[in-house]
Design brief:
The protein is mainly alpha-helical. It has one domain. The protein is 66% helix and 5% strand. It has four helices and two strands. A hairpin with a 5-residue loop joins strand 1 and strand 2. The chain is globular. The model has no long low-confidence stretch (mean pLDDT 76).
């Protein structure tokens, strides 16, 4: 099994540029929030991934709450209720 650890080696200015790109590109917001939610759900150990996901989900969680989390096949992986539950849990940690 291969583990990708690239999220541990992202410079701060790259992370900042990524967040700005998503913030200024509405077409990317739902897709990025969905992908980062799934990535964070499977691995919370990568600092830059966690920082980016936390910011993006904080800003665009309403998009996930409207439609749930969708994978590449456009099938709902986590329902809106599942997202609400996970977001509520995250406030306790």
């Amino acid at each position: 099994m291969t583990t990708i650890q690239a999220g541990n080696f992202v410079r701060e200015e790259i992370l900042s540029a990524f967040i700005r790109l998503v913030a200024h590109t509405p077409e990317l917001q739902a897709y990025t929030a969905s992908k980062l939610y799934l990535a964070l759900k499977s691995d919370i150990s990568q600092e830059s991934l966690t920082l980016a996901a936390t910011w993006i989900l904080g800003e665009y969680s309403d998009v996930l709450l409207e439609g749930g989390v969708v994978d590449d096949d456009h099938t709902t992986v986590v329902s809106a209720n599942g997202v609400k539950f996970c977001l509520r849990l995250s406030f306790f940690y």
